[in-house]
Design goal:
Aminotransferase class I/II-fold pyridoxal phosphate-dependent enzyme; three-stranded antiparallel sheet; binds pyridoxal-5'-phosphate; eight-stranded mixed sheet; 386 residues; Aspartate Aminotransferase, domain 2; 2 domains; globular; PyrdxlP-dep_Trfase; alpha/beta; pyridoxal phosphate; Aspartate Aminotransferase, domain 1; transferase; 15 strands; aminotransferase
Length: 386
């Protein structure tokens, strides 16, 4: 009996290693409200990510909504339909108008030319996503924003520890937000962060995170409760001691998938990201099964892949009839959403698990392949031992 394989699996330390942290929390009775673990983890995470001004949050969605509040955005915000629903939801919860434009076929990130074409007198900001941890064209987006006087908030939920040559990708734009959710590369059960460009901006974010309080009796803004609790912060501190090994394992499995799927007819590999958070592939017409047939073939083998990001946000019931939204032509996003499938990629995998996944792709279609000129066999020399 094969074990179930999931697209992601949370990074978890040994339970015994976490008990002393819990004992500290029980002894101090400080459960939340920016306690000692919060302070320590906020600094340690900023150091690890090599950013200066980081504010922890209780999740990425609250962080995103708070970033939009901090910048006092109103009107239209240009964003991508090819992302997790929370990106657009954060706009709607701020009564902003999402303007959906198409993505680049190589990176699956917002296409700068499409952004520029969608700008109107009501446009106030751009909300790009570093999809799958692949950096956006930050230079082009920054240029467009400067020319049109727009704010840029990066949804960097996938971009933990992603660099771009000169440093962390999180330093770009007016703010970046991270998600530390259980399904992400680095988790604090639930969690998130805002990376601000200046200390002044971080101070404003920190006020909004805590109901707008600046001292016991003074409330200067209509803030929210975005605080990370002490258990999550303590857990984050312990997680930091394991993240490098986890990223290393991800890189190994990514390389194996990439090596073995390269050149398989009908399979398109996607850009590699620094943190190897996801392994999306596109199932093109030359492959003998449709994307959904392959998805079902995986399920029969207890392999639970995910079709991130399908459906497009613009086709979700909550959006497709929305008056307060603008829909531009989305040929690339539509093509990708119909063909994408994300393979299991996480540190709990074994080489044997990866072989199981590869076998479904390379062998499942063997019946319809009988008439094919090039059989989809993989050279035995390339097979790694489990
Ligand atoms: C996960 C995710 C979010 C939301 O983060 P939470 O921590 O789950 O609230 C936002 N945007 C993107 C692109 C995501 O993948």
């Amino acid at each position: 009996m094969n074990k179930d394989l999931y697209v992601s699996s949370p990074l978890l330390p040994e339970l015994d290693d976490f008990i002393p942290y819990l004992r500290d929390i029980w002894d101090s009775k400080r459960l939340t409200n920016l306690g000692p673990f919060h302070q320590a983890f906020e600094q340690a995470l900023a150091d690890y990510l090599n950013v200066e001004h980081l504010s922890l949050f209780n999740n990425g969605t609250t962080a995103l909504m708070t970033a939009l509040q901090a910048l006092a955005i109103e009107g239209e915000v240009i964003t991508t339909p090819y992302t997790f629903a929370a990106t657009a939801h954060a706009l709607v919860w701020n009564r902003l108008t999402p303007v959906f434009v198409d993505i680049d076929p190589q990176t699956f990130n917002l296409d700068p030319a499409a952004i520029e074409a969608a700008i109107t007198p009501h446009t106030r900001a751009i909300l790009p996503v570093h999809c799958y941890g692949v950096p956006c064209d930050v230079a082009a987006i920054g240029e467009i924003a400067r020319r049109h006087g727009l704010r840029v908030i990066y949804d960097a939920a996938h971009a933990f520890a992603v660099q771009d040559g000169q440093g962390s990708v999180l330093r770009h734009g007016d703010m970046s937000i991270l998600s530390l959710h259980a399904t992400k590369v680095f988790n604090t059960f639930e969690g998130g962060a805002i990376i601000s460009p200046t200390l002044e901006t971080k101070r404003l974010v920190d006020q909004l995170r805590n109901f707008g309080f600046v001292d016991e009796t003074t409330v200067v803004a209509c803030g929210i409760n975005g605080k990370m609790n002490e258990i999550s912060a303590a857990f984050g501190l312990l997680q930091l001691t394991h993240i490098d090994a986890a990223l290393q394992r991800r890189a190994t499995f990514d390389a194996l998938y990439r090596d073995r799927l390269d050149g398989v007819p009908g399979i398109t590999l996607c850009r590699e990201s620094d943190n190897h958070g996801y392994f999306p592939i596109l199932i093109e017409d030359a492959y003998p099964l449709s994307r959904d047939q392959l998805y079902d073939a995986f399920r029969q083998q207890q392999i639970y892949t995910r079709r991130y990001f399908y459906p497009l946000i613009t086709t979700m019931a909550a959006y497709r009839q929305r008056q307060q939204a603008v829909f531009h032509a989305l040929p690339v996003a539509t093509h990708v959403a119909q063909r994408v499938i994300c393979l299991p990629l996480h540190p709990d995998l074994t080489l044997n698990d990866v072989e199981r996944v590869l076998a479904v792709i390379c062998e499942a279609p063997s019946v319809p392949l009988i008439s094919r000129a090039t059989p989809l066999t993989v050279s035995d020399s390339k097979r790694l031992q489990p």
